[in-house]
Design goal:
Elements lengths: L2 H16 L8 E4 L5 H17 L4 H18 L1 E6 L4 E6 L1 H15 L4
Parallel strand pairs: 1-3
Antiparallel strand pairs: 2-3
Length: about 110
């Protein structure tokens, strides 16, 4: 099975477990700038963070923080828009700005 097929499987698994009940009318929208593998990793972390919330608070807080840090590192964000009834996965533009600042600091501004 290819990486893309695995990503699609993870995405479908997330939909079948999360977009149910109160969220069954919601749609998942993945920005075309986000690679399928990143989207799959985002949804995997989201799903397991939700599952961890049923465990002790310490475990959930630690897992949630780790998941958030990984998404920041990947330059991806996930958020829910209740008015549009959508869950979005998009590039994190703040991450791109931070990367640019770091690059300028390390190598100068190119002038």
């Amino acid at each position: 099975m290819s990486t893309i097929e695995n990503a699609k499987e993870v995405i479908e698994d997330w939909k079948s477990q999360v977009l149910v009940g109160p969220l069954e009318e919601y749609e998942l929208e993945i920005d075309e700038e986000v690679p399928a593998e990143y989207a799959a990793a985002t949804l995997f972390l989201d799903l397991y963070t939700m599952k961890a919330s049923g465990n002790t608070n310490d475990y959930f807080a630690g897992y949630s923080k780790a998941a958030s840090d990984i998404l920041k590192f990947m330059g991806v964000e996930i958020f829910q828009d209740d008015l549009q009834k959508k869950v979005y996965i998009k590039r994190n533009l703040e991450f791109d700005k931070t990367q640019e600042k770091l690059k300028e600091f390390l190598w100068g501004d190119g002038n």
